[in-house]
Amino acid sequence: MARPVCLVTGVGPGTGAAIVRRFAGDYAVAMLARSVERLDELADEMANAHPFACDVTDGEALSHVVARVNDELGPADVVVHNAVGGAFGEFMDIAPEVLERNFAVNTLALLRLGQLLAPAMVERGHGAIICTGNTAAYRGKPTFAGFAPTKAAQRILAESMARSLGPKGVHVGYVAIDAVIDLAWTRRRSPDRPDDFYCKPADIAGEVWHLAHQPRSAWSFDVTIRPFGENW
Question: Where does 2-135 have alpha helices with state H?
Answer without folding.
Answer: 15-24, 36-45, 59-72, 96-103, 109-124
